[in-house]
Amino acid sequence: MIGMFLAALDNTIVATSIRTIADDLHGLTMQAWATTAYLITATITTPLYGKLSDLYGRKPLFLVAITIFVAGSAACAFADSMVQLAAFRAIQGLGAGGLFSLALTIIGDIVAPRERARYQGYFVAVFAISSVLGPVVGGFFAGQAEILGVTGWRWVFLINVPLGILALFVVTRVLNIPHTRREHRIDWPGALALAVGLVPLLLVAEQGRLWGWTSPASLLCFAVGALGLAAFLLAEHRMGDDALLPLRFFSNGVFGWGTVAGFVTGMGMFGAIALLPLYLQIVQGSSPTQAGLETLPLMLGIMSMSIFSGRRISRTGRYKRWPVVGVSLMIVGLVLLSQFLGVDTPYWQTAVFMCLVGLGLGGIMQPVTLAVQNAMPPRDMGVATASATFFRQMGGTLGTAIFLAMLFGSLPARIAENFRTDAATLQATAADPAVAANPANAPIVDALHGGPPPALDDSSFLTTADPRLARPILEAFAGSMSAVLLTAAALLVIGLVAVLLMRELPLRTVSGVEARREPVGTAEPGALPTVAPEVAVPVAAAGGADTGDGAERGARLR
Fold first, then answer.
1. Count of Cβ atoms closer than 10 Å to residue 318 Cβ
2. Dihedral angle over CA of 148, 152, 156, 158, nearest 10
3. Helix H segments across 177-281?
4. Cα separation, 293 vs 352, whole angstroms
5. How many helices (H) and strands (E) does the chain have?
6. Tens digit of pLDDT for each residue in 287-315?
7. How much is the CA Rg of the chain, to the nearest whole Å?
8. For 510, which DSSP code?
9. Residue 380 carries which DSSP code?
């Protein structure tokens, strides 16, 4: 839980303070690269950690991941430029890729699937708590000029150092998982092809809105990414069971449909988490810290449903109903948000709908991971868990990029339409000398007089502009967000179909470590642990008497 808290907290704490960091390092136009560099390395290394931990053991790989993450955090704290920060964030990502997947894999090793849901609920709760604390702590550090003689924003990264040292100490002392070394080949061709395929695709997902989706740079990224993924599939086919992501996994229906469900819900989850704070800050006028606190209902929904569903799964052994309920709640919550999100929407209404989306997320996040772990052979626990995490991260990355591109792509037309509709009222307001004298109103007044539309790269002018002039822009933001949320709800219907088609298998009653020790055969994926039956041993002694040798052989065989 400490290891997962490190990575989850870093995601949200940096997002809140990146604007202040970029201003201080004189690199506002390059701030996206600090996020992109981290995202690329964290996504690519996720399946690598899973495969290597299956081969060399969980503990050494978990320690390596924590150490790299802490070293990268310390380096980020002393960055003197945005180029340095992006490079050090890439190092951070190399460690972060193992923190999420290995934490869930370790629980799979030491806890049986029947009990695992209860523990994974706590991990999801850690993720939710860090999502709430991150914006608050990030806003606090970014707002301080200095703390103990160090610039305030640098503590955003320095806070990871004591937490990381604590995690290293705890893992070193108490985490002892037996590991049996396997004969293997390391899939370096697959790892290289995956990097070649994903790096350009992640780059264009993050930067495509700025470059233009049909620009030469974007088209080149699409082409290289497609070639890299084709090479990756070829490499995995040739490596067989030693592949980074064995293709035989996809012949397992639970893994296949679970992957689709994780990818689609990842798009919906990260899209909602990215859009709701924007709505609260831009349309409702909240500060970053306030917006972090106002998303608390979303996180409370995730926490409560994760813990509740985990306990019910442990008690009943049935898990399929929870992803079905979860995706359904997400669809209903996003539809309600899309219909009622507006400039004058009271916060309590938004909070109720956010809680509904959170309840849905809490119902699907850990049961899908549990289903995949339970369906795959215990020896593949690491790579199966990492693969599920990998596809969810990829869905989140693409979802955030697509939804933000939709949001900002539709804004200019909506703003122009609102200006035309309210032209008379806006012209009368702009003619007021007091309004014209306010510099914050200048972008809107210029647009009304035939100038270019207001630049939306910096929306801070909306907080001090005349409310009558700002309203058409705020209504355009709310309208665009409603359309995006409705699209996310429609996309989640695919996720609902996937979880309905996912077969429910009996949950194993032994942990991953115990299952790997099974002395008899190999159980079918998801089957209950096998027990060796008693076997009758024919005895050749004269008179049919059972000799000591025959009895001993029978006992050994039993």
1. 13
2. -30
3. 188-211, 216-239, 253-278
4. 14
5. 22, 2
6. 767 777 788 888 888 888 888 888 888 88
7. 27
8. S
9. G
